[in-house]
Amino acid sequence: MNTPHPPVPDPTSPPLLEYKGITVMVGSKKVLDSLSVTIREGDHIAILGPNGAGKSSFIKTITREYYPVLRGDGMTFRIWGEDVWRVADLRSLLGIVSGDLQYRFARDITGREAVLSGFFASIGLFTCTVTAVMEEKADDLLRFLEIEHLRDRPMTEMSAGEARRVLIGRALVHDPKALILDEPTTSLDLHALHTFRSTLRKIALAGTGIIMVTHNLHDIIPEISRVILMKDGRFVADGPKEDVLTDEQIGGVFEVPVHIREEGGWYYATGF
Length: 272
Description:
Blueprint: E1 17-26, E2 29-39, E3 44-48, H1 55-62, E4 76-79, H2 87-90, E5 94-97, H3 99-104, H4 111-116, H5 132-144, H6 160-171, E6 178-182, H7 190-205, E7 209-214, E8 226-231, E9 234-240, H8 241-244, H9 247-254, E10 259-263, E11 266-270
Parallel strand pairs: 3-7, 3-8, 5-6, 6-7
Antiparallel strand pairs: 1-2, 1-4, 8-9, 10-11
Helix pairs in contact: 6-7
């Protein structure tokens, strides 16, 4: 993980994610409406929108928890150029950290055990056979993320921010092409938020793509160059963050008068 220069993605490789005309129904409710997006390896992207916009539903299409309604030959639903994936095989491409995952890890498991469990997609190790290579990788990640002090601490005794960083380590054990974060700063205080942001910046600079889903403007680290705005199950804007993060665009999505200011690569909303 101590990569001095991030690897250069192969421009001939298929997109990490390629959707065209994706509509998802949950029961009788349309949660995603004709989404189209292309995300390439190494992209750092934020998907920003209010609660209920469909952001978590979008993540569930990536993890194959949700599937689109078939809409003819024009629909595209590919990850890394493939239409069909075994969910287990996606783990080597995508690392995912969510509030739901953190809730499931609220048990008597040490930080190191939680990281190691990423090799088995399990909650804890149980009867899993841990190899020396796995142990070395887990210890390397604990050092890289600067959480060696959490190695032997039970998850139940960690703060929300500490547990979140441990689960990022768990998500990185397979060296994924992208780290997907669903509302990553929920319940973090100012100190935990500062530490968490520093961790994400370090991961981005090491070459792992960041796909962040959030409703908080201040979650968008400077390394994120592209922002997609989402509302009512649709993508309503997609482009360079300096073009998307404007008073008019953000005010429209969140339905509130707002002033956006930029400071040292960070964006903040005021005036509401």
